[in-house]
Amino acid sequence: MSVRRSAARAALAAIGLALGLGLCLGLSGCGLSYYTQAVGGHLDLLQRARPVEQWVADPDTPAALRERLRLAQRLRAFAVDELKLPDNASYRRFAELDRSAVVWNVVATPELSLTLKTWCFPVMGCVGYRGYFQRAPADALAAELRSQGLDVSVYGVPAYSTLGWTNWLGGDPLLSTFIRWPESELARLLFHELAHQVVYVADDTAFNESYATAVERLGLRRWLSEAGAAAQQEAARLDARRQDFRRITAQARRDLEALYRSRLAPDALRERKAERLQQLREDHARLKAGPWQGFTGYDAWFVQVNNAALAVQGAYEDQVPAFERLFEREGRDFARFHAEVARLATLPAPQRRAALQALGADAP
Q1: Could you tell me if 18 and 27 are in contact, meaning their C-beta atoms sit under 8 angstroms apart?
Q2: Residues of 264-291 as b/e, b for ≥16 C-beta within 10 angstroms?
Q3: Which residue stretches of the chain are H helix?
Q4: C-alpha angle 173/189/256, rounded to 5°?
């Protein structure tokens, strides 16, 4: 569907996008220029996107891309049939971009805390990150936040979800920023982003991201159980590194949280913080020199690691064991699992956290 059919439709699109993009772009609720770039950025993606069938049929489409698009559609069908994720317009179109990321997110924390700064706006609530379709304004906000004494991280995002708000316009498209990833990584991303269209809780980034991360992991296991040996072996290699990364970063978060709760003077806290972050970099160097066999994919992250980078990592990871335990409790039935997560989402925040903590306490 054309996004330029009429002024009325364009206005409706702007309203829907301003609300929907608030989830993963951290809309602030103030500042017309921010709304404008968010809406304009997504409309640009929609204008670039064409149905996958057109790309596949086009003789100018490279053979490798054609095969990746076919794989994406098999994953899309699997997500509906096996994982009970939404059967809608999302990820049935493809857009080629001229950049390495679709969005750049900015996250921030106090100097001596792992609590993410949040940006709040009407309807969608508060989120712990703010995103831009161009790198320059993200860097400008980061500089402003650093001048306030905050720890700040800016990172590229290959995809985001509009929560289904834009399905009437063609949905969230497949993008060149991730379509050529290894099979298991492509599966993870699609399952994760589609999960955001199932359950979303305003003001609870950790709940939303941990749930989606759980869906991606559970879904990938089921996908790989039916995949070929080559895909399984590749996924095992990638996951081994990911597990190492999670282990050392989770321990660093626990150590820093304990440190920040202590009664040490601020100067002593800063010194201990610097020491712990240096230890984390050394842990990475040992992995890189050892089992990772020189893998450089995490280098930039560790060079710039700070509270903000660790805090956003925790939002994606810390509640995942509880959701995995819930999946087991629901008989490994995705429909029942999603329904129970939706029920938890209706609880007041303290009750929701308590329920997840109870599940996570004895998670395998």
Answers
A1: yes
A2: eeeeebeebbeeebeebeebbeebbeee
A3: 7-20, 22-25, 32-48, 52-57, 63-81, 135-147, 183-195, 205-225, 229-261, 266-289, 299-303, 307-317, 320-329, 334-345, 349-361
A4: 130
- Residue 39 pLDDT: 81
Nearest to 182 by CA among 287, 72, 293: 72
d(CA 90, CA 164): 8
Rounded to whole angstroms, the Cα distance separating 36 from 128 reads 20
What lies within 8 Å, CB to CB, of 181 at 6+ separation is: 189
What's the token pair of residue 316? Answer: 């994606």
Angle between helices 183-195 and 205-225 (to 10 degrees): 140
pLDDT tens column, 3-34? 333 333 333 334 344 444 444 444 333 456 77
Which residues, other chains included, contact 208 with Cβ-Cβ below 8 Å and sequence gap of 6+? 23, 196, 199, 200, 201
The fraction of the chain above a pLDDT of 70, given in percent, is 89
In whole angstroms, give the CA distance from residue 264 to residue 256.
13
The number of beta carbons lying within 10 Å of the beta carbon of residue 240 is 12
Between CA 113 and CA 295 the distance in angstroms is 30
Question: Contact 99/51 with Cβ under 8 angstroms?
Answer: no
What is the Cα 90 distance to its own chain's centre? Answer: 16
The amino acid at 169: L
The whole-angstrom separation of Cα 170 and Cα 92 is 8
Give the separation between CA 296 and CA 73, rounded to whole angstroms: 31
- CA-based nearest residue to 127, from 210, 23, 211, 197: 23
